[in-house]
């Protein structure tokens, strides 16, 4: 017994090192599996607060660009609204009658990264603003990512520039679907894989979200086809997609809630019997 | 002693904040970021309790990990370089280390550079290997280690020269 205690005392630095190294490996492996990175994420109170203060200072330098983006979006929405030929005088807005499938909330990005292989964003809305896990995050130009963790006031968002991200996407002109992934090489491009080789692809085609998942609405813009080739299996295309969003510069975002998600999921869930 | 402890605590907090608020967002050439917070480990007084030192290094890496959503990669790298630091101290400074009387602002440029580079490259290698976590991308790991490592070394040398307390 004495010898065991002596051994522990003599090698205590090595034992502490082994323990802590094991702990950090555990956290690393946890963070590599989807929806298991519960313990360490930047949407907690302390880190969220620090980023909030820093963002409060930093956002003033970006106001001109933010205003331009908002103006551009307003112009687009106005041109849609005034060309719709609606009877704008007699529209009755009744919140009970509106049977909308998606609810949008605005949020601001506090922290954005794009140089690692697993990138996350932190936004300034959390549980208190009814943001929940698996809500989609988009901007006026295209998709950004999926909410992965929430705290009281902040949420962390799994960016599409993340090797663990896999988003259902399709060609805009036909219904050929694939998955949007990222090969870590450039923040400007993502890759669309598993898209059938019978799809009529052309450079410049628009890629949009597929609407097969319950996260994003169908038809949210993603990017354009930059180049494509047949994958090693020979049955599918691998498409290099140039993203519409400049992922290195994201200020305001919209969080999308699919109000019918639970209904769709309960329908799709395989029966136990 | 209390003054030294306070000094170390202040350095701990300031380096984390500077790292996560400024140096994590440099993204030079798209992906090169310096990780200057490991100056804390490099310049930690050599004659101190080693167990405490390894634990502090873990805490340091862990804080940076939480801020940058990276699991435990910084913590793992920091713990490792903190544990193997005595080997490099002995290797670079030889006899001076045996008397445990290194003053980091009095050593000459050459041995300082060797000591800094060794620890920084080991830290970056472990960190990127764990972050990318894919043996088939070994070239990407080495490339990131090399470029970020050089950037970090330059910045660390500059910072230690700027903030050294040697007055002439």
From TrEMBL, chain A:
GO biological process: regulation of cell shape
Gene Ontology cellular-component annotations: plasma membrane
Domain Rod shape-determining protein MreC beta-barrel core: 109-257
Domain of life (superkingdom): Bacteria
InterPro entries: Cell/Rod_1 (IPR042177), Cell/Rod_MreC_2 (IPR042175), MreC (IPR007221), MreC_beta-barrel_core (IPR055342)
Record keywords, A-Z: Cell shape
Family to which this protein belongs: Belongs to the MreC family.
NCBIfam families in the cross-refs: PRK13922.9-3
Name of this protein: Cell shape-determining protein MreC
Record organism: Gelidibacter salicanalis
From TrEMBL, chain B:
Transmembrane segments: 12-44, 51-67, 113-133, 145-163
Superkingdom of the source species: Bacteria
Keywords: Membrane, Transmembrane, Transmembrane helix
Record bears the keyword Membrane: yes
Designated name of the protein: Rod shape-determining protein MreD
The organism of origin for this protein: Gelidibacter salicanalis
């Amino acid at each position: 017994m004495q010898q065991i205690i002596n051994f522990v005392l003599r090698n205590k630095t090595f034992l502490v090192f082994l323990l802590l190294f094991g702990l950090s490996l555990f956290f690393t492996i946890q963070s590599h599996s989807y929806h298991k990175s519960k313990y360490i994420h930047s949407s907690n109170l302390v880190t969220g607060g620090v980023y909030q203060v820093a963002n409060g200072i930093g956002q003033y330098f970006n106001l001109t660009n933010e205003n331009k983006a908002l103006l551009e979006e307003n112009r687009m929405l106005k041109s849609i609204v005034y060309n719709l030929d609606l009877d704008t005088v007699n529209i009755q807005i009744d919140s009970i009658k509106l049977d909308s499938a998606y609810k949008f909330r605005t949020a601001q990005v506090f922290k954005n990264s794009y140089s690692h292989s697993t990138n996350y964003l932190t936004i300034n809305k959390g549980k208190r603003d009814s943001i929940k896990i698996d809500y989609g995050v988009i901007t006026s130009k295209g998709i950004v990512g999926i909410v992965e963790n929430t705290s009281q006031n902040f949420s962390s968002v799994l960016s599409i520039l993340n090797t663990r991200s896999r988003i259902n996407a399709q060609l805009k002109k036909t219904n050929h679907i694939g998955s949007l992934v990222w090969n870590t090489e450039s923040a400007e491009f993502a890759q669309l894989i598993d898209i059938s080789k019978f799809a009529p692809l052309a450079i410049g085609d628009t890629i949009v979200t597929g609407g097969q998942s319950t996260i994003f609405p169908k038809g949210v813009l993603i990017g354009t086809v930059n180049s494509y080739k047949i994958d090693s299996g020979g049955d599918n295309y691998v498409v290099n997609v140039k993203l519409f969003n400049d992922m290195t510069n994201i200020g305001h975002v919209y969080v999308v809630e699919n109000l019918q998600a639970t209904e769709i999921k309960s329908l799709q869930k395989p029966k136990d019997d | 002693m209390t003054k030294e402890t306070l000094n170390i605590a202040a350095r701990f907090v300031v380096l984390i904040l500077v790292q996560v608020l400024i140096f994590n967002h440099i993204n030079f050439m798209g992906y090169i970021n310096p990780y200057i917070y490991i100056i804390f480990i490099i310049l930690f007084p050599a004659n101190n309790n080693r167990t405490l030192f390894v634990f502090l290094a873990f805490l340091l890496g862990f804080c940076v990990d939480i801020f940058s959503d990276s699991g435990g990669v910084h913590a793992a790298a920091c713990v490792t370089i903190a544990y193997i630091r005595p080997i490099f101290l002995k290797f670079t400074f030889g006899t001076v280390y045996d008397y445990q009387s290194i003053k980091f602002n009095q050593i000459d440029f050459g041995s300082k550079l060797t000591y800094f580079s060794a620890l920084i490259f080991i830290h970056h290698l472990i960190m990127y290997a764990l972050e990318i976590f894919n043996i088939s991308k070994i070239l990407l790991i080495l490339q990131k280690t090399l470029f970020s490592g050089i950037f970090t070394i330059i910045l660390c040398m500059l910072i230690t020269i700027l903030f050294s307390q040697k007055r002439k």
